[in-house]
Amino acid sequence: MFQGLGTALTTPSTPGAPLLADASSRWVRLLPYVVALAFVASLLPTTVHLLAGDYGVNGALAGAIGTAQTAPLLLAVVRPLQAWWIIFAADVLGALVMLGADGTRAHLWPWTPPAVVGYCALMVALGLRESRRALFGVWLATGVAGYALEAFRPAGYTSVHTLLLVLSGVLLLLTSAVRARGDAQRRLVEQETISEAERARRTLLEERARIARELHDVVAHHMSVITVQADSAPYRIPELPDAAREEFTSIAASARESLAEMRRLLSVLRSDGSEGERAPQPGLDRVQQLVEATVRAGVPAELRLAADLGDVSQAVDLSAYRIVQEALANVVRHAPGASTRVSIRADGGWLTILVVNGPTAEARSAVERGASGTGHGLVGMRERVRLTGGSLDTGPLPDGGFRVAARLPLTQEPVPAAVTAHPEPTPTPDPDPDPTPAPPSPPNPNPNPNPNPTVKDSE
């Protein structure tokens, strides 16, 4: 309850809303009304008795002034500045009435003790709600009124306007500082939320650009084949009609133009000055080398690779390799020493990839740290399966391990319309905090390096 009260005190309410209106506890939300009612119940009879008994004010007039000085404290819960105007005017009017009274036991001027207590309570409500400019105006008006009434102080009275000025200034300063601290914390949380969303969005865009650069080579290869076939058709088929020759010439020209456009697009994607990769894009034929590199990194890994995967398109071949690469890289970083199984098989026109690692203490802590990470790995995997029209399932296992399961179509298919019609929302940070793939292994002339993972062919 006390923690909720502290949070509510430092959270500014919207204009017109009660103090502590944003508190989660109902009792905390009712607390301002209870406190205001307690002040009114205790100060109202005390003020009336003091004005009538000590200052000699008429009873009815004393009741009216006492009510005006205390009852607006209930209004201060919702609109403290409006309540201040009423109480301030009532205090000044009360001082003028006391000036004409003939009480013999009065000794304080120009504010009565109940008026000082009620005014200080009002300062707390003001400091938690109003702007610093309004608070300074309230404090300045209090000082001016006090010093102005000081000029009319009757003989034998003790001045308390300096005490009220100091108390009100201290209370306004403290409560406004509490409110300013709450404002700063709220803005900081909002900024962190925005930064996290922007970081996740930037991660997604970087992964898409990276995938586009890789797929450029695949598409460019097909376009080059189309160009060569269209250019060589008139020479390979001598009896080709003239209309067909012109058609092949047009196809070759369109293919060259498309290649030029792709190069321009690629230059935009590489506007950060990064150099293009000159090595051929990897595929499933290099998964064994990838697993061997993981074993050399200290992770016991087992590979089950189907003997016949069928006709796999280049885009799916590249995506499958990258998914395995990123999954193994995450095991090396976050679950060192955990046994890992990699399975790749073809079934019913789909390529199924499964990477499962066992539990380790490091793996569990990495999952906890990943809750606020900014990793690319799972983001990249999702983008690759989305590009090829497949599906991805990732998550922790009951025993503490982690599983990555992907299904990709063996033949490249377009992305479903439901995916392309609506942009993907900004993802939340993944439990995989790093996109960097596992250290690549250079081509090894020895097909069975030592140590060697277990490689099994499944039918």
Throw out a few tags for this protein.
14 helices; 459 residues; alpha/beta; Heat Shock Protein 90; 10% strand
Beta-strand content: 5-15%
> Strand order, biggest sheet?
6-7-5-4-3-8
Chain oligomer state: single chain
Give the count of structural domains: 3
Uncertain residue ranges:
363-375, 414-459
Shape: elongated
Average pLDDT rating: 78
User: Helix/strand/pairing class, anyone?
Assistant: alpha/beta
Count the DSSP helices: 14
List the helices and strands in order. HHHHHEHHEHHHEHEEHHEEHE
Distance between the termini: 64 Å
Secondary structure: number of strands: 8
Helix content: 55-70%
Transmembrane segments: 30-51, 57-76, 83-101, 107-128, 135-152, 158-178
Domain Signal transduction histidine kinase subgroup 3 dimerisation and phosphoacceptor: 207-272
InterPro entries: HATPase_C_sf (IPR036890), HATPase_dom (IPR003594), Sensor_HK_TwoCompSys (IPR050482), Sig_transdc_His_kin_sub3_dim/P (IPR011712)
Pfam family, one: HisKA_3
